[in-house]
Amino acid sequence: MGFVFAFMPLYALGMLGMPRRSQKYFEPVYLPYTIVAMIGALLITGALICMVIQLVVSVRERHATNVFVGDPWDGRTLEWSVSAPPPEYNFATLPKVDDRDAFYVDKCNGRAYHAPDTYEPITLPANSPLGPVTCMTMVATGFALTWHIWWLAVLGILVFAGGVIARSFNRHTEQTISADEVRDIETRWLKTVHETAPVPVEAEFSNLNRGRAAGALK
């Protein structure tokens, strides 16, 4: 709603001939649209404030609101079938999907939260600083090109190019999580799952909810 109220009036103002960076916001023909855009901007600001508050509360009360089991709302799809936060590899074994709501069907049939017969090593892409470097250098380069700060633009392009070249010489592009480590992580999580009491729907929004909704569990 904030986005619509903030930006849709700007299209109308453009059609009315209002130029960018204008000093004529209070022209009678423009004023109704600028007021609506301001209301939209306030809505967006309020949403951002709510997001910051949620982040602060989530960090401050992280122990009271912990949902490590990972299924606080009786989820249906596979993203709810792992711990929260999820492990680096997401799924210890490749899920078998026979239904659109695979996790919900597994819970209904008593197949959820069971350890596989064996675990195997999992190979993942190795961590790399190239992503953050690219982000920061391209932001700096774009800013510099917009405002004609040529030294910063050249520096940003050089650092970005240097990062790409340095990355091309890196032969360690993968990391492997051993089967024993995967087993330890999954065993600790499944132990927590079975020790956590399922909560009914009426308690899902309370601190009794540790990430295991009763729902379809049998």
Report on the structure:
Helix 1 packs antiparallel against helix 2 and helix 4 runs antiparallel to helix 5. The protein is flat, with a radius of gyration of 26 Å. The longest helix has 30 residues. Helix content is 48%, strand content 4%. The protein has 218 residues and is mainly alpha-helical. The model has no long low-confidence stretch (mean pLDDT 92). A two-stranded antiparallel sheet has the order 1-2.
Essential attributes:
48% helix, flat, 6 helices, two-stranded antiparallel sheet, 4% strand, 218 residues, single chain, mainly alpha
Sum this structure up briefly.
The model has no long low-confidence stretch (mean pLDDT 92).
List the SSEs and their pairings.
Layout: H1 2-15, H2 31-60, H3 102-108, E1 122-125, H4 130-146, H5 150-168, E2 174-177, H6 179-195
Antiparallel strand pairs: 1-2
Helix pairs in contact: 1-2, 4-5
Task: Tell me the number of strands.
Answer: 2
Spatial gap, N to C terminus: 41 Å
- The backbone outline, from C-alpha atoms, is flat
- Rounded Rg: 26 Å
Q: What fraction of the residues are assigned to beta strands by DSSP?
A: under 5%
Question: Helical content, roughly?
Answer: 40-55%
What can be said about the biggest beta sheet? Answer: 2 strands, antiparallel
Strand order of the largest sheet: 1-2
* pLDDT averaged residue by residue: 92
What is the helix tally?
Answer: 6
Order of helices and strands: HHHEHHEH
Q: pLDDT below 50 for ≥5 consecutive residues: which ranges?
A: none
Overall SS class:
mainly alpha
